[in-house]
Amino acid sequence: xAEKNIDRMLDMTDSKYRLSVITAKRAxxxxxxxxxxxxxxxxxxxxxVVTLAMRELATGQLTTGQELIDExxxxxxxxxxxxxxxxxxLTAERERERD
Length: 99
Known about the structure:
Structural class: mainly alpha
Radius of gyration: 17 Å
């Protein structure tokens, strides 16, 4: 992890492994459409969701533990969004074949 606030983030968890898991889960939530806690100007500079998740965690605004955003709901939303994207691609390919 090449994040500059790594020491502060390690103090928030009991191990570097738990920090990795928390960061990965938050990155998955962000990919699924969870709103970011960072201001828009800071968020616009970050293109990697893992880096974004680490920066969010470093702010101390996220709650870790039992009160995390419902991961199952975001995973289902992600799957639903992916299915919609695949359906659009399939429809576009069928349209091209007709022409």
